[in-house]
Structures are given as C-alpha cells and as structure tokens.
Design brief:
The protein has 317 residues and is an alpha/beta fold. 38% of the residues lie in helices and 17% in strands. A hairpin with a 5-residue loop joins β8 and β9. Bound molecules: adenosine-5'-diphosphate (ADP) and magnesium ion.
C-alpha cells in the first residue's frame, strides 16, 4: 500500500510545529479503516501514539486508564485520519491465541484455514488493537512476544505458513490496569499480566480529560448543546467520579461512575428528548442512573440539581 504524508496540525486539529508530518496510507477506501468521528485530541497522547506509529522499535503500545476515557477511540480516530486499516478484537478470559492467528472453519462441507486479526494485521501492515487485553490469559498473550520483536509468525496448522511482520504492523493493547492486576478492585476479571509480555510495551495513561477538553468533547459530539449546559454536565461528572473513587482510606460512596462515554450519551439524549419535562434529569436517568441503586440514583440526581441550579427546573428545559 502506498504511504502518504499528513500534516499533523490540520489532520488532527491541534497546535503543532508548522511542517510537522506523519506517515499514513494514501488509499482511503480500505474497508478496515475506522469510521471517522469527531474526536478531541490531547497533545501529549497524540504525540506519544504518533511517535509509536512512526517507529515501533519492536514495542507494542499499552493504553491504560478508566473505562470510557477514550483509549480505544484515540487509536481508531488517529487511524481514521491516516487511512490506516485496523484489526480490532475485544479480549475475554477464554480467548486463545489461535483465535487471533487463525482457525480452520467448516465451509461447504470442507475445512478452510481462515486467518485471524493478528495474522492479517501482521501481513498487511494494519494496526492490531487488543481491547481489554488484561482480561485475557497471560499465557495466551505471551505467544505474541516473538512477533512483536519482528520474528515471523509460523502457522503450523496451515502447512507451516510463514508470515513476516510488515514494517508498518503495530500492536495496541488497552486495559483498565497497567498489567499489574487491578489494585482498586473496581474491575472484575482483570488478570495480572505476564511480565515478559508487558516488558514489550510502552505504557501510556489515558485518564478522563480535564474540564476544558471534556467540554469540547461534548460540544463536538452535540454541537447544538448550549455551552453553559456542557460546562455543568462536566462538573457533575467530576463530582460523580470523585465520589466513585473515594479516598485512600475509604471506599468510594458510589459504585457507578460517569465516563466520558456516558457523558456524551447524556448530552446526546438531552437533545433527543428536548421538550420533555426536566429533560436533563430524564436523559441522565437513561444515560447512567437507571443502572444505579435507588439511593445512589437519588444522590447523583441531587448533585446534578445542585450544579445545574435554575437549569434543572422543568420550565428552563
Ligand atoms: N477525546 C475524545 N473526543 C471525543 N470523544 C471522546 C473522547 N474521549 C472519549 N470520547 C467518547 O467516549 C466514547 C468511549 O471512548 P472509548 O475510546 O471507547 O473508551 P475506552 O476505550 O477508554 O473505554 C467514544 O466513543 C467517544 O464518544
Ligand atoms: Mg476500549
């Protein structure tokens, strides 16, 4: 595939040195290129991912951070703008490496070998994204070590097929922990990862964006929303997160939290239900609090009512 240079400032809508460029692909028609969506790029995170795309040095890249903070979409939205095809998988506890490499499937009465996302990405120079990789058995993931280092993938089942990794093949993994298991106890099923595997990854932290960025995120997703409302929604999210996290000595008071994903949903639903009596409360309920315990729902609605002030009243909606 032919490569193409992209200007960083205009491609990602960030402040960057004039003339700073990154390499992507020229062909924008590949079906595995992610759908382009509005995304607010944070400079430091963008810089780290672009540096890794530019030169992997035999590493993978691990994005760690809370749920719905923009880990997966950071990678897919960069890929969307660089026309970089992506093979994306969501890991789980019973997932085996063979599911990533390829398997025989029965078709029309005979078996055929079908390559998995790892084999395709390595062969074609796509990005491989392993979502929630810390749910996967470390022993299975360890099988990725050789290919990360540039060794060929040998598929014994398929007549000893040899796939040399393409020079633009890259591996991203995301997870709520940074490979050390989950110390907070908030995430179920997170396994302590194999040290030899994690040793091959650069790790970056993707936390919930700060207030200014998160407000931009809402407004880029729902441009019709008044800025004063977006600002209040972000404040409610910050307070919910604070109560969810608790402090060093105490567990959090809430067992649900407001991710950036939920925040965008709240904003979107507020426009969908425009005209409903207390639209912001109604939308908040569907976006988040319907899945909370009744006392927690009440507590969150009280926080929102405080923050919204007059805007919470039905007639203001
Ligand atoms: N910086 C951002 N700009 C725009 N939308 C964002 C941003 N961060 C998160 N989002 C929204 O949150 C959703 C969830 O993000 P995602 O990348 O799937 O989270 P994670 O992988 O961390 O769980 C995205 O689909 C998008 O709507
Ligand atoms: Mg994700």
């Amino acid at each position: 595939m032919t490569t193409q240079r992209f200007d960083v400032a205009t491609t990602f809508g960030v402040k960057a040195r004039p003339g700073l460029e990154v390499l992507g692909y020229a062909d924008d028609t590949h079906p595995q290129i992610p759908l382009r969506q509005p995304y607010v790029f944070r400079n430091a995170l963008l810089r780290d991912v672009l540096a890794y795309l530019h030169d992997a040095h035999g590493d993978g890249m691990f994005l760690t951070g809370p749920t719905g903070a923009g880990k997966t979409s950071l990678v897919t939205q960069i890929a969307a703008r660089l026309n970089w095809p992506v093979q994306s998988v969501t890991c789980h506890g019973r997932m085996e490496l063979n599911a990533l490499i390829g398997q025989f499937v029965l078709m029309d009465g005979s078996t055929h070998f079908v390559h998995g996302p790892l084999a395709i990405a390595a062969r074609e120079g796509h990005l491989l994204i392993l979502n929630e990789s810390d749910l996967m058995d470390p022993a299975e993931l360890a099988g990725l070590n050789d290919i990360l280092e540039g060794q060929p993938l040998v598929i014994a089942e398929n007549g000893g097929e040899v796939i040399w990794p393409h020079r633009r093949f890259r591996v991203f993994a995301t997870g709520n922990s940074a490979g050390a298991g989950d110390a907070s106890g908030l995430y179920q099923g997170v396994l302590r990862q194999n040290l030899a595997f994690m040793d091959r990854f650069r790790v970056i932290h993707v936390d919930y964006p700060d207030v200014g960025v998160e407000q931009q995120v809402i407004l880029s997703a729902v441009p019709q929303l008044p800025a004063a409302i977006a600002e209040r929604m972000v404040r409610v999210a910050a307070e919910v997160r604070r109560l969810f996290m608790g402090s060093d000595s105490e567990a959090g008071e809430l067992t649900v939290t407001m991710s950036t994903r939920t925040l965008v949903r709240w904003a979107t639903l507020s426009m969908t239900f425009k005209g409903a009596p207390n639209v912001f409360e109604y939308a908040l309920q569907q976006a988040l609090t319907a899945r909370a315990e009744p006392e927690q729902r009440e507590a969150i609605h009280r926080i929102a009512a405080d923050v919204f002030g007059d805007y919470w009243a039905p007639q203001a909606a």
